[in-house]
Fold this protein.
Amino acid sequence: MTKLVEVNKLYEELAGIVGERFVSNRPEELFLYHWDFVTAEEPGKCDFVVMPGTTEEVRQIVELANREKIPVVPWISGINIGGVCIPRMGGIVVDLRRMNKVLEVNEDDMYAVVEGGITWGDLKGYLLKNHPDLRAGITWSPPGTGVISAYICYGMLDLGMIGGTGAEFINGLEVVLPTGKVVRVGSCMSTDYWYGRQPYPDLAGLFIGWEGTTGIITKAGIKLWPNLPRRDYIVLGKTVDSGVRIFKRLAKAGLGIVDMCFLNFVWLTATQGVRDSENIPYEPEKAGLPDFYGLVTVTGATEKELDAKEETLMKICSEEGEMATRFGDALGLFSENQIGEFLTYTSTPIQLYTVWDFARGGGGEWTGGYVSSKHLVDVYYRMREAAKRHGRRPQFYGRAMFGGHYWIGRMNISFSKNDPQEIQKVRKCLMDMDEEARKVGSFIRYKPPPWAKARNFEKADPNTLELMQKIKKLIDPNGIMNPGQGL
Ligand SMILES: Cc1cc2nc3c(=O)[nH]c(=O)nc-3n(C[C@H](O)[C@H](O)[C@H](O)COP(=O)(O)OP(=O)(O)OC[C@H]3O[C@@H](n4cnc5c(N)ncnc54)[C@H](O)[C@@H]3O)c2cc1C
């Protein structure tokens, strides 16, 4: 988009749609949209940013972009940590954060209809104030990051054991297609109710797992859950192996656990303010330090029910030769100011992201993916070994999903974004960890940057890939929607 006259004309047209105040092509403002704020990815470049306030405005922006064959990138806060909304081919970034309302809550069917740019802060605040008996599944990401972006990218929530990935929390969608047509999928297609995706063909899949490359979601029906009394436990395991063994038993014990995840020793020390330092052993278990710090959340309608669940949980842990304790009792592990931060885990308005330590310089990126429960432990040791070869002490985080049917594992490397050499080294390390993880056979990256997506597809069935490419072409004939993300 080099000709000034074209830029000016487009600017005028965009301002005509959203109003002068909500369009910009000023470099200092565009700069904020060029990159994923924390990753080792190279920044991109966009020509305009717009902030629409309604579906109709989104529709007109997309129609204009399709007419002019200009890229359009849906964006909420750009902190997905995979670089999946870096504007790689210029064009218009559509910042959706003005579309942040809860439009409806249906208490009978326990769902909310929300706008496409709603953030965790918006959603949680609204529910706490207006529907305290209901809650949403939330991530550990900062309150200013998006709900729909996390759901369509298979994000993990603190109700992951009971409900699966964010994608499984979606009941229905309203989407502006890359041609400017608006569609609704799910029960909302033919009724005023957004209770589910059944029994129509499940077209929501056209917009889930595509990283914003098939349309802009302007509304979504999302599942809510009863906000029951909860108890949180820390499960200590000498090794990741022994901890995961306990989690697998807990998953099959029918305890109605709503969330079950763990951090390794390095991540735990990060929560205590310790940075990547030579004093932290690569293999804590060899130094006699537990390497598995599990967090288990149980809910129940009565104290008696919670007591019974606790008894079973403790019994399983002790049969495996390990120990569990109530969350509050484990806080003695932390210094006084960190206790305040850590308590955010159990208090709903604030999220645990505060304890995620980034090295000075603010960089952090992970190699993360979904994996068979059979291979989770192997993935951990393989990636840890790869990180060790690069001299990095890796933070690991694993979560059992949907009753324990599958798992997610992510190994995070903190780094300084101010040091180009370090960024290069970290990139190499992340790529090697990725290669190692894939050797187990079931590991698939989620929110993958283009290089990782290419690896995902290396062994994919060619007929399925061809089908995906045809679908993409059908939906987005001019290839304008978030291009360069790897398909
Ligand atoms: C400290 C920290 C902790 C985190 N913890 C978690 C966690 O526990 N679980 C988890 O899942 N994630 C986590 N994240 C990742 C991420 O921040 C969240 O998933 C977040 O909710 C999504 O990020 P975002 O809003 O910045 O999305 P963006 O980066 O803005 O968008 C992500 C993708 O969605 C697309 N998109 C966005 N909105 C729309 C729309 N309306 N229609 C179509 N496409 C759209 C974009 O084009 C892009 O491809 C964490 C991040 C940080 C920094």
